[in-house]
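user: can you give me the structure for this one chain? tokens are fine.
assistant: on it. calling the predictor now.
[tool input]
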Amino acid sequence: MDTKPELRAHLKARREALPADSREAWSKALSIHLDHLCRNRRFNRIGAFWPFGSEIDLRSAVSAHPDWLWFFPRVVSTQPPRLAWGTEPMEKGPWGLMEPTLAQHFLPPVQLLLVPGLAFDDDGHRIGYGRGFYDALLARLPEDVLSVGVGFEAQMHRTVPIDPHDWPVQALLSERGLRLLVAGR
């Protein structure tokens, strides 16, 4: 695995090989930790994502808190990579991702941003799908928004290659709980 695309393919295959029942149980455990984080910090405006393929599934957290404001990304530009954010209802986007039907915020109006990835290291760096959407967002994210990499524990603690445009998250959240990081942004 000499290139990032090869590493991404390996990491995706590794995640997809995790048993579906384990992924479901871990997703529910992570949702409980997410609930504790939000209640302890009094967060009720959260930037999240709908699961794609074998990704961690946050839907149980979303459905458990209909009184919170959940914002989801919608791809509005690939060059430059840009997301817009909106609330439910959702529809299938051009890549098969569930996206909000109406997304009018270029910066999500949130207190907590949950960031997906294929792997995360102990410094908060991540390897995503390679299009740069979240790195572009993290570069512009207000300092008072907590950015948290979200995934299964099997995706954590990997050394990931870092490029100059890569931005770390401030914490990691898995089925084992929350880890605040020193590096962060």
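assistant: here you go. The chain is about 25% helix and 25% strand. The chain has one domain: 4-180.
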